[in-house]
Amino acid sequence: MKLLSGSLLIISLLFSYTIKAQIGKIKFEKTTYDFGKVKEETKLAVHNFKFTNVGNGDLKILNVRTSCGCTASEYSRSPIKPGASGTIKVTYHTSHRPGAFRKSITVTINNPDKPNTVLFIKGYVIPKKKSKADFYPITMGHLKLMTNHLAFNDIKTTEIKTDSLKVFNNWDKTMTISFEQIPPHLKVKMSPSTLEAHHEGYIIITYNAPKKKDFGLVYDRIAIKTNDNIQPIKTLTISARISQDFSNLTKKELKKAPKIVFDNTSYNFGKVKSGTMVSYRFHFKNEGKKPLSILKIKTSCGCTTTKLAQRSFKKNKKGYIEVNFNSSGRKGRQHKTIKVISNDPKNPLIVLNISGELD
């Protein structure tokens, strides 16, 4: 009986060894390929890595993983018999990738002893010569722009400023350009009035802050009307950060100026359930000699609203800004801001904060 058991064990071990030995092994002709210099206009640099199954069992490629999205691979999912060959096609996307590159491709097969082989591609992408159109990143139909947002970052309530943005007609036809939906505080013109094919021009904008009668960061949108057959109507955004002009105030006037002082500028409501309406009053006092005017209150999101009973406060008068935060549909840590703009020359902008955590 013992002799029989021993024989069975030996046969079992030999059988296991035979099965284990019948596995595929991959051998590549090369594991690194140098493309050398490739033009960016080529768009796709392709190489086939050739391999042979040098094992005594079927070879299966389980996965091919590239080191970045700029590299793609193609390979057969079918088993490869011993002695048979195959290829792994690797493609490198050269568009918008000038300069040297070196990427890896990890090939995983059904060999538990050596499942992974790493391939490499490298080279240098010669940048393509840029046309005029390439210098304009924003595309609206056939019209290309440096930007579709012109910002007057710092403009006083007393100022009128003019700025421009450059445009390019990337069309084989002359483009006519006019403007619509222009608010009263803006003047907009095109120079030249029409753009010849593949020519540049300027949209010139004059911002009249006294006519805007607003404070802080404000936005306007105007329509660009063209004869473009792809997108005839285009939109241009104009912003301005409008601040008060206190430059003409004398030292005596500054001493008598209004002065807004808050009891505190931050409120933490702790931890509450989502859906709770959080309310808080930020109290302040005019410690100046001249009347204090609250000119504008702006919250950081539509979930936060404010109430102010009056906007003018004489010397030593107190007031408060009631803030209501609607937490519906929100969870986790919350932080909202309320910007208060007043006629206090030393503190024309004060930021209030409301924060907490929602279950």
Strand portion, in percent?
over 45%
Percent of residues in helical segments? under 10%
The CATH H-level homologous superfamily of the largest domain: Immunoglobulins
CATH architecture of the largest domain: Sandwich
Task: Give the overall average pLDDT.
Answer: 93
Major sheet details: 5 strands, antiparallel
Features:
Immunoglobulin-like; 3 helices; 3 domains; five-stranded mixed sheet; 359 residues; mainly beta; 8% helix
Report what the structure shows.
- With 359 residues, the protein is mainly β.
- It is 8% helix and 54% strand.
- The protein has a 5-stranded antiparallel β-sheet with strand order 9-10-12-16-14. Strands 11-18-17-13-15 form a 5-stranded mixed β-sheet, with no helix packed on it.
- The longest helix has 20 residues, at 2-21.
- The radius of gyration is 35 Å and the shape is flat.
- The relative contact order is 0.10.
- Mean pLDDT is 93; it is low at 1-19.
Question: Care to give the gist of this entry?
Answer:
With 359 residues, this protein is mostly beta strands.
